[in-house]
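[audit] Reproducing an earlier prediction to check determinism. Same input, same settings, fresh worker. If the tokens differ from the archived copy the diff job will pick it up downstream; this log only records the rerun itself.
[audit] input (128 residues):
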Amino acid sequence: MSEEVDINQYVPGFDYEKLNEDQKTACDELLRLIAEKYQDIDFGHLRTTFKLEDKKYYDLKESEFAELLKRENIVLDPQGYVKTGLGADAIHYPIVAVCADIRKFDKILNDYKKIVVDLVNNVGKDNK
């Protein structure tokens, strides 16, 4: 399991927001070298701390489920994020709360079933 390192413990009060390009290059190289030696530790959070890369967030607009709920005016309320992947590949996916009248959820489920049935019934019809 990956051990998290708090850089503030070693360099308190350092202003990570104002690194010049030479400092960023040096940090990038240092993190690369440390990561090679200590492969069991994820230093990805340091890359975002030093502004070497931005956090990537999953956009709920890309979610088919979110779109189905939106059509019924059901709001997805982000409660936090779960990170998948390490370093530059890490993506933060939202943890959402969903509240609505059960009839709305039943309608969404039935509408989805109709979509699936239509897809199944139309498979191969374009090839004839």
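[audit] rerun output stored. Observation attached for the diff report: The chain has two domains: 1-54, 55-123.
[audit] end
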